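Support request, please re-run this one:
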Amino acid sequence: MTPNQQKRDFPAEGALLARALSDFFTTKFLALSTAPFIITILIAFFFLFQLSGEFFDMLNAAAQASQNPDAAAAQNELAQFAKEYPIISAILGSFLFKAVAGTLFYIIGGGVAVLVSVIIAVIVVGFFTPMIVSEVRKRHYPNVERNATVPLWDYLLFLLGQFLLFLLFLVVSIPFWFVPLLGIVAMNAPFYFLFHKLLTRDVAGEILDKREMREVFAQAKWRIMTTTLILYLLSLIPGVGILGQVFFVIVLTHQFFQEAARLRAAQVETATS
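Re-run finished. Output below.
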């Protein structure tokens, strides 16, 4: 099969999700989806449980301090603060404040928990990406070579840099969370950034070498971002963001194999012309 024939045989971008979906609903990939799902659920619920426990412990401490400030003050700094500001302590310890604060905590915290769980799922599925890429290649792209030669240390430096950028992006965006409409974008933008970076690098790194990655990301930047944005929006549907990670990797695997074939076919044409 010539490069031009190979390139014509690949599905158009419009069929990307459909082909990935047909792969996903096979016994092998459905079974593979259960491991990232279970691991992510356990990690996400552990952190949510710990965070909610700390939050309500703080409110209970404020309530105890308002009732017995002298005894509580010796126990922690929060109680000392409550002793000095009894009105604030009384408000924090009131049933009404707890009800309102608890509701807001679960509304806002629930939204953040969904976003965090998506990122955790992306990290977890990264351990399964080589297996997924190998299976998709065997099924659809046996003539497209995997030129993954990116060293581990380079990948670890990439991860560190992206997480630092994500944290900076997150801190800058927090003040905008409470602005109507804009808050939705501000809350999701940092998480989409990390989602896009981690998924694309994980999949591309299993198919392309370092030079090819630079070229593909330069030539197909908007095609790739369109795909990851669609996947990110799908991930916001409760459950899909965790259970669908294998599907997301399959989608991007198809896309990067197609981009790799286009790039290499163009290089062959240039070399022979």
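Residues 3-40+116-272 form one domain. DSSP finds 14 helices and no strands in the chain.
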